[in-house]
From TrEMBL:
Family: Belongs to the iron/ascorbate-dependent oxidoreductase family. GA2OX subfamily.
Keyword Mitochondrion: no
Biological function: Catalyzes the 2-beta-hydroxylation of several biologically active gibberellins, leading to the homeostatic regulation of their endogenous level. Catabolism of gibberellins (GAs) plays a central role in plant development. Converts GA9/GA20 to GA51/GA29 and GA4/GA1 to GA34/GA8.
Protein name as it appears in the record: gibberellin 2beta-dioxygenase
Alphabetical list of PROSITE patterns matching this protein: FE2OG_OXY
EC numbers for this chain: 1.14.11.13
Organism for this UniProt entry: Dillenia turbinata
Top enzyme class: oxidoreductase
Domain of life: Eukaryota
Molecular functions (GO terms): gibberellin 2-beta-dioxygenase activity; metal ion binding
Record key words, sorted: Dioxygenase, Iron, Metal-binding, Oxidoreductase
Length: 331
């Protein structure tokens, strides 16, 4: 079923189209979490790319399949049914508009906070048939990907030799952690594709403001990351693995050693892309600051200290593609 109507001309002028130029020769770091060298490789990937793929991640594929099935069902509903979830301001269903400041993409999505009460409340509109099933799938999925994010943050602490081991993990483990969960659907647009051969930008280039993001997709391609020299690399889809992004906050905590990866998604003209991403953020009152033990003698701090609440407020005033950290650079 075609879920979003074909783009009209005025929508197309807002949603960027282009023939993406990409570099296919660079391969994305692949890290087997069951291997003893994982900590070293995670740190290297965070420094070189701010991005990597993990296998042996411990998340049940059965669970992933079931939740993706629910997402497919939901995005297949009529527009009026989907609208009943409520606008994504900040949590709910959104279509084409990304964030509050005029960014647009060829996408529809559900944005949820990980607060169990909100998940339960929204489940009634997302799955009228069986809200309890949807709620419990999201809860179990979040438990599994959060566990994975904790493991990765501990590997980072080990690899950087920072103590205690849970110094990063505890920010996401905290009951007040301000984390977000997003289910995305990038619908196909076969007629337009056939006509022009152009691609539509599904989610424009940006960095994630949080500490770390854990995402996966179905087998439809579209994700690209920017390398440090500015070239874009297509990330081949892999529905069995998870992709990890360093967020702005982790860049600050490592004084720029880790790079918050710039990424974007193109919608495929012929096939639906579905993705689900957990964005791990700290409690609102947490101070985001360089980890003191990382600072070498004479090293200058690159960023001022700020609370996650301050950074989040500032992020929500920005456009998607802005360099949000530039406002927090130390003089
Ligand atoms: C990017 C990462 C997450 O998807 C997100 C996005 C958020 C939104 O879609 O509402 C933002 C974007 C993201 C960064 C800048 C602001 C906020 C849209 C936007 C223009 C949920 C997040 O936390 O930040």
């Amino acid at each position: 079923m075609v879920v979003l109507s074909q783009p009209s001309l005025d929508q197309l002028s807002l949603i960027k189209t282009c023939k993406p130029s990409t570099n296919f020769s660079t391969s994305i770091p692949l890290i087997d979490l069951s291997k003893p060298d994982a900590a070293k490789l995670v740190v290297k990937a965070c420094q070189d790319f701010g991005f990597f793929k993990v296998i042996n991640h411990g998340v049940s594929m059965e669970l992933v399949k079931k939740l993706e099935g629910e997402a497919v069902k939901f995005f297949g509903l009529s527009q009026s049914e989907k609208n009943k979830v409520g606008p994504a301001k900040p949590f709910g269903y959104g279509s084409k508009a990304i964030g509050p400041n005029g960014d647009m993409g060829w996408i529809e999505f559900i944005l949820l906070s990980i607060d169990p009460k909100l998940v339960a409340q929204k489940s009634f509109y997302i799955s009228k048939e069986n809200p309890e099933n949807f709620r419990s799938l999201v809860t179990d999925y979040l438990e599994a990907v959060r566990k994975l994010s904790f493991e990765i943050l501990e590997l980072i602490a080990d690899g950087l030799e920072i103590k205690p081991r849970n110094v990063l993990r505890r920010l996401l483990e905290d009951e007040e952690s301000d984390s977000v969960f997003r289910l995305n659907h990038y619908p196909p647009f076969p007629e337009l594709q056939a006509l022009s051969g152009e691609n539509l930008v599904g989610f424009g280039e940006h960095t994630d403001p949080q500490i770390i993001s854990v995402g996966r997709s179905n087998t439809t391609s579209g994700l690209q990351i920017s390398l440090q020299d500015g070239t874009w690399v297509s990330v081949p889809p892999d529905h069995l693995s998870f992709f990890i992004n360093v967020g702005d906050s982790l860049q600050v905590m490592t004084n720029g050693r880790f790079k918050s990866v710039k990424h974007r998604v193109f919608a495929d003209g012929t096939k639906s892309r579905y993705s689900m991403i957990y964005f791990g953020g700290p409690p609102l009152k947490s101070k985001i600051n360089v980890l003191p033990s990382l600072m070498k003698a004479g090293e200058q701090r690159l960023y001022k200290e700020f609370t996650w609440e301050e950074y989040k407020k500032s992020a929500y005033k920005s456009r998607l593609g802005d360099n949000r950290l530039s406002l927090f650079e130390a003089n």
